[in-house]
C-alpha cells in the first residue's frame, strides 16, 4: 500500500493554526480579508509540497481556524457578521480550488521530470548496447537501472531455461501472478520475485528476477520503461553472446 503522507498532513493541520496564533495579537487591527489571504498562501504551500488531499485538508482547517479566531463571536464556530461569513466561505472555496490547481501543477511537473529521466535511461541503455563489447556489461547496466527505477531490494539475471512459475512483468507493464492480474498500482510488486523475460530475434534468452521493496509502488510508466530496458538487454545479448536457447 502507498505510504501515508504524514508530513503534509501535519502541515495541513498545524500550519493554518500556527499562522492564526501568530496573527492573533493583531486581531481588530488587521483586516480579516488580509488574514484570509495569508491563510490561502499557507494552503498553497501545503498543496505544492504534499498531495491534493493535504491541500484540501489545509483549506478546511484554515477556514475553521479563521472562523474560530477572527470572526465574532470569538472562540466559537458561529459568525455574526455577513461580511465575515462571506470571507470565510471564500477562504474555503478559494483554498480548495488553489490547492487542487497547485497539486495538479506539481503532478505535471513531476511527470515531466520523470519522463525525462526515463527517456535518459532508455537512451543510455541503447547506446551501451550498441557500443559495449561484453554482454555482461549491458546486463549489469540494465540490472542497476532496473534496481533504481523500480526501487528494488534485489535484482538478478538468469540465463537459459525457465524454472518455476513466478509472477511475471508483462510487456504492457502489468504483472500477473499465477495467470491472474496483480493490482500493482495499489499493492506494489508481489512479495515473491517477479520475472522480466528478455528475448532476441524471437527466442527466449533469460530473465531478470525483480524483488520489490515493501512499501514502494513502482508506477505504470516505470514498469513500461523496465520492459524497454529489458528489450535493450535482449538485443545486446542476442548480438554479442547468443546464450543457449531455452529448452
UniProtKB/TrEMBL annotation:
<dbReference type="InterPro" id="IPR038318">
    <property type="entry name" value="KdpD_sf"/>
</dbReference>
<keyword id="KW-0902">Two-component regulatory system</keyword>
<keyword id="KW-0547">Nucleotide-binding</keyword>
<feature type="domain" description="Sensor protein KdpD transmembrane">
    <location>
        <begin position="10"/>
        <end position="108"/>
    </location>
</feature>
<feature type="transmembrane region" description="Helical">
    <location>
        <begin position="83"/>
        <end position="103"/>
    </location>
</feature>
<keyword id="KW-0418">Kinase</keyword>
<keyword id="KW-0597">Phosphoprotein</keyword>
<keyword id="KW-1133">Transmembrane helix</keyword>
<dbReference type="InterPro" id="IPR052023">
    <property type="entry name" value="Histidine_kinase_KdpD"/>
</dbReference>
<keyword id="KW-0812">Transmembrane</keyword>
<dbReference type="InterPro" id="IPR025201">
    <property type="entry name" value="KdpD_TM"/>
</dbReference>
<dbReference type="GO" id="GO:0005524">
    <property type="term" value="F:ATP binding"/>
</dbReference>
<dbReference type="Pfam" id="PF13493">
    <property type="entry name" value="DUF4118"/>
</dbReference>
<feature type="transmembrane region" description="Helical">
    <location>
        <begin position="53"/>
        <end position="71"/>
    </location>
</feature>
<keyword id="KW-0808">Transferase</keyword>
<dbReference type="GO" id="GO:0005886">
    <property type="term" value="C:plasma membrane"/>
</dbReference>
<keyword id="KW-0472">Membrane</keyword>
<dbReference type="GO" id="GO:0000155">
    <property type="term" value="F:phosphorelay sensor kinase activity"/>
</dbReference>
<keyword id="KW-0067">ATP-binding</keyword>
<protein>
    <submittedName>
        <fullName>Uncharacterized protein DUF4118</fullName>
    </submittedName>
</protein>
<feature type="transmembrane region" description="Helical">
    <location>
        <begin position="30"/>
        <end position="48"/>
    </location>
</feature>
